[in-house]
């Protein structure tokens, strides 16, 4: 094996981490995570008992089944955001509505914690947009130094987007745009 070969001695954890990073970048990952984390306290608190010394506080409410349904639906919507990102706007709106409904139904929305996480997750899901896929020709190889990259790639990296507007449409030349016959 030569020292120039790449990928032969990579550790399997590094490979899994790169795959996870690529998977995470193609979907509203954080939106789904926040929504699922928000659904857990909403579903859990109505069935929990708190022990303070010898005193047991039962936090169960008459709407325990409703809060369980809201919590399970929020976790399901979070998984939907991960695995079916095409319906991310619907899942985000549904998560926000369920978070708002959890305030009167499920112990003030899981003591505000579940409400806030679900609300933020729904908002992140609505605002997420997929990125433009790069072709294999445009993407720089990580093993190729910047100085050795092709000229077209270097020009693309240093290109500055032009501002739009009538005053910026004319070409910028030293003589003000007037060409002299020479």
Say how many strands there are.
Answer: 2
Shape: elongated
Over all CA atoms, what is the radius of gyration? Answer: 27 Å
* SSE-based structural type: mainly alpha
The largest sheet, given as strand count, sense and whether it forms a barrel, is: 2 strands, antiparallel
Percent strand equals under 5%
Mean pLDDT: 78
What is the terminal-to-terminal distance?
62 Å
Major sheet: order of its strands?
Answer: 1-2
Percent of residues in helices: 40-55%
- One letter per element, helices H and strands E, the order comes to HHEEHHHHH
Outline the structure in words.
24% of the residues are buried. The protein has helices at residues 12-25, 29-44, 64-83, 88-105, 107-111, 113-127, 151-158, and strands at 49-52, 55-58. The chain has a domain at 27-127. The termini are far apart. The protein is mainly α and 182 residues long. It is built from seven helices and two strands; from the N terminus they run ααββααααα. It has a two-stranded antiparallel sheet with strand order 1-2.
Descriptive key words:
single chain, 182 residues, mainly alpha, two-stranded antiparallel sheet, 7 helices, 53% helix, elongated, membrane, transmembrane, transmembrane helix
């Amino acid at each position: 094996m030569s020292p120039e070969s790449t990928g032969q001695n990579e550790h399997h954890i590094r490979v899994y981490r790169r795959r996870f990073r690529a998977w995470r970048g193609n979907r509203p990952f954080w939106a789904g995570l926040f929504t699922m984390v928000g659904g857990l306290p909403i579903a859990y608190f109505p069935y929990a008992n708190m022990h303070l010394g010898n005193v047991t506080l039962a936090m169960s409410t008459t709407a325990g089944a409703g809060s369980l349904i809201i919590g399970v639906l929020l976790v399901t919507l979070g998984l939907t955001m991960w695995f079916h990102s095409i319906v991310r706007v619907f899942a985000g709106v549904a998560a926000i509505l369920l978070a708002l409904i959890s305030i009167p139904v499920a112990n003030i929305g899981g003591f505000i914690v579940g409400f806030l996480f679900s609300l933020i997750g729904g908002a992140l899901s609505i605002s997420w947009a997929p990125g433009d896929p790069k072709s294999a020709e445009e993407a720089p190889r990580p093993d190729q130094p910047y100085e050795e990259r092709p000229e077209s790639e270097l020009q693309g990296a240093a290109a500055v987007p032009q501002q739009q507007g009538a005053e910026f449409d004319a070409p910028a030349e030293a003589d003000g745009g007037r060409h002299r016959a020479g």
